[in-house]
């Protein structure tokens, strides 16, 4: 390594290591436990089914999930929220991508400090990150007062990843030299811009467009194959490798 400081590797969790969204799993677990009421529960199911059947966009479905939690947060005891988060990880934490999991193991052997970064809540991100041996994790945080939520947001990760990482590197005496980051959506672009080795994993259209403009590596995992695409900035991607996982 070119620096004596420990290099940083940042792994976005949702859709990058975890095969779905921890946030969505948590909301539906709370729905299952009756914290949103029958009518809202039906609306959640309807919104999900509309997205799955391509009658609505993922963005509209996701916004409804976000609004459902934020709008009902103050009526959910924080201890129940914590219990639901741990249940999500216990029941679904094994649903991961193989490529990213193997990459994390390699980075650990290579001496990287591995940080999990997620827009999902800290309460569900922390047990998931602990399960896979991350050195630390950062998720969104809602303000608490006793056994209740106030409805205020203390830390909101989406849209703030670049700032969060820059501050974290300084506070923990790490280095972005030889750093690695893996993300899957446009909310990860600021994070990927900071590192030496950005990887767009199963990227959204928006992230794929930016990755192509910047010449970032793209990895697509399908079944038991990881397809690595590379290309100079602005040029079409070419298939570099197809590795069995």
From TrEMBL:
Cofactor(s), by name: Mg(2+)
GO cellular component, one term: cytoplasm
Gene Ontology MF term list: L-phosphoserine phosphatase activity; magnesium ion binding
Reaction catalysed by this enzyme: O-phospho-L-serine + H2O = L-serine + phosphate; O-phospho-D-serine + H2O = D-serine + phosphate
Example GO BP: L-serine biosynthetic process
Keyword rRNA-binding (UniProt): no
Pfam family name, one: HAD
E.C. code: 3.1.3.3
UniProt cross-references to NCBIfam families, sorted A to Z: HAD-SF-IB, HAD-SF-IB-hyp1
Record's protein name: phosphoserine phosphatase
């Amino acid at each position: 390594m070119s620096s004596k400081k420990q290099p940083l590797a940042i792994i976005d969790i949702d859709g990058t290591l975890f095969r779905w969204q921890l946030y969505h799993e948590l909301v539906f677990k709370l729905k299952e436990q009756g914290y949103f009421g029958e009518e809202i529960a039906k609306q959640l199911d309807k919104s999900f089914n509309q997205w799955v059947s391509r009658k609505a966009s993922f963005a509209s479905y996701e916004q409804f999930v976000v609004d459902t939690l934020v709008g009902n947060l103050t009526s959910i005891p924080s201890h129940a929220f914590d219990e639901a988060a741990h249940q999500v990880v216990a029941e679904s934490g094994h649903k991961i991508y193989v490529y990213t999991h193997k990459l994390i193991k390699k980075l650990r052997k290579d001496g990287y400090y591995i940080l999990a970064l997620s827009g999902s809540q800290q309460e569900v991100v922390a047990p998931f990150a602990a399960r896979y041996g991350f050195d630390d994790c950062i998720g969104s945080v809602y303000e608490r007062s006793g056994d209740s939520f106030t409805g205020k947001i203390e830390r909101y990760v989406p849209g703030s990843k670049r700032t969060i990482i820059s501050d974290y590197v300084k506070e923990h005496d790490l280095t972005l030299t030889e750093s690695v980051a893996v993300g899957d959506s446009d909310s990860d672009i600021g994070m990927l811009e900071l590192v030496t080795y950005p990887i767009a994993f199963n990227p959204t259209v928006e992230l794929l467009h930016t990755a192509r403009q910047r010449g970032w590596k793209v990895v697509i995992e399908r079944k038991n194959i990881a397809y690595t695409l590379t290309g100079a900035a602005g040029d079409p991607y070419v298939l570099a490798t197809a590795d069995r996982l």
